[in-house]
Amino acid sequence: MKTSSPTLLPLLRSRLQGEVLAWVLLHPDEQPSLSEIAAAVGTTVPTVKREVDRLEEAGLVQSTARGRNRAVAPTTDHPLYRPLAEVMALTFGPVGLLREALEQVSGIDEAFIHGSWAARYAQQPGAVPGDIDLLVIGTPDRDELFEAIEPVERTLRREVNYRVVTPEAWTADGGSFKATILARPLVHLMGSGDD
Fold it and tell me: Are 185 and 124 in contact (CB under 8 A)?
């Protein structure tokens, strides 16, 4: 099945290509396996293998055998590494970077990206988002949450506007805020994903 170019970066063939590329380029010290990349971006190992094969053929990544697995790392001395990693951080970086940051914060039940960035991610046309809207459901320590999000903002070079709602308030909310959030695209970052 043919997919259209992603609205976030129409230079790519697919959103999945962007997610794989971002995951590899933005984790230069981890050398994840194909199965770890597949789990992180929500696809199959054969799909990741095809993308990694293309990247390796272009010299953008290198892989090494690790037992029966294949570990992948970006070619950080490639002339395109830094600019490409920056582009990937700005376009496909919010999901992985925010997910990793929020996993370090206790008290979060669920988290979602919403607003214009989520709409572009869902292939809805529009202007390049100037910020990232984040909804956190739970009772995290506000200082801990701020400290986790601040480095992500620097990497993304854009503000992450977050709103924290307690689980009780979210469940009881019958108003326009919850209705508006649920009526538009959401990018699930953590938690059950249920309303």
Answer: yes
